[in-house]
Design brief:
There is one protein chain. The protein is built from 12 helices and 4 strands, in the order H-H-H-H-E-H-E-H-H-H-H-H-E-H-E-H. Helix 3 crosses helix 7 (166-198), helix 4 (68-93) packs across helix 8 and helix 4 (68-93) runs antiparallel to helix 12. The mean pLDDT is 84. It is mostly helical and 311 residues long. The strands form 2 sheets. A two-stranded antiparallel sheet has the order 1-4. The chain has a two-stranded antiparallel sheet with strand order 2-3. The protein is globular and about 50 Å long.
């Protein structure tokens, strides 16, 4: 495999991951709608899982193949990039209002999970079945809370499910899953080869290239929401995605295979905590992420990117 072929494989892999997730979500949401499940429940579960499907596929696939640096780097890198780059860019485009529930509940949950991730990694030096069960238990409790809160308070639900026929539902679900799995294989294999050719570690590739690729759905969703003036969902989308990345993606990966947490990731783990806390601080007083805050976040990522390259 040449370097050019590897780069093409990564691009094709990203496309398959993103489109596969879209098709899977549409198919699964149609099944839920036909079963009479409320739209708000579909939005908070199926669609939320769908946006984290690329990260899940890559992290699980890389862990199985022994590319632990890509597996952990993808989760940490995606979470850091989601806050510092995606929200930074989106906030620079326009001010982003933040719901009080996100500040009081969702952001503290994200911060807490980021701290738990670092604590497990620092003291246990790996993520295993125990940590996996803890993460999955947290996400289960969080989903139950979200569903109960949304139904009780009549929260708005902008989720739209396509009215698909049964044959198309089957094609969407099976085709989406196949695209996700094959896309993750192409991405992991291509990224691993690129890392070896360039003489950089799987950690750096996972934190940058792979993290950016798997964060594309969140980037598109947030920027599109901002352009359409649906700015209230932009921050919630990112915070929810980060919670799922740690609790669901890393939790599932840990149960399938023990994933080592090297000392090189200590810095990234701390940065992910700082990014989460910084977002909370910037939005706490006015329930808004303004352009100045967006610039602050983006500059933070530039500093982080330079640090990991020279570290």
């Amino acid at each position: 495999m040449s370097l050019l072929v590897s780069l093409v494989s990564i691009v094709i892999g990203f496309v398959l991951l993103i489109k596969g997730a879209d098709f899977f979500v549409d198919g699964a949401a149609s099944v839920a709608a036909k079963a009479g499940i409320p739209q708000i429940v579909i939005g908070l579960t199926i669609v939320a899982f769908g946006t984290s499907a690329p990260e899940a596929a890559v992290s699980i696939g890389s862990a199985i193949k022994g590319s632990d640096g890509i597996s952990i780097g993808n989760v940490l890198g995606s979470n850091i990039m989601n806050i510092l780059v995606i929200l930074g860019i989106t906030a620079i485009i326009c001010n982003l209002p933040v719901k009080k529930t996100s500040i009081r509940v969702d952001m503290p949950v994200m911060i807490g999970l980021s701290v738990i991730l670092f604590v497990f990694g620092y003291f246990m030096k790996c993520f295993n079945v125990v940590s996996g069960i803890v993460f999955l238990a947290i996400i289960a409790i969080y989903i139950v809370y979200l569903v109960r809160y949304s139904i009780k308070n009549g929260a708005d639900d902008d989720t739209e499910s396509k009215n698909l026929s049964i044959p198309r539902i089957v094609i969407y679900i099976i085709g989406g899953l196949c695209a996700i799995v094959y896309g993750s294989d192409l991405t992991v294999d291509g990224a691993s080869y690129v890392a070896s050719c360039l003489g950089v570690s799987d950690r750096i590739i996972g934190l940058t290239v792979v993290a950016f690729g798997t964060s594309l759905p969140e980037l598109v969703t947030s920027v599109t929401a901002a352009r359409k003036n649906n700015t209230d969902i932009a921050v919630g989308n990112i915070v929810g995605s980060n919670i799922f990345n740690i609790a669901f993606v890393l939790g599932t990966t840990s149960i399938i295979r023990k994933v080592p947490f090297s000392e090189a990731f200590y810095f990234d783990g701390i940065v992910s905590i700082i990014a989460a806390v910084l977002l909370w601080i910037l939005t706490f007083r006015k329930c808004e992420l303004n352009r100045a805050g967006g610039v602050c976040l983006f500059v933070g990522y530039v500093a982080y990117f330079i640090a990991i390259l020279i570290h």
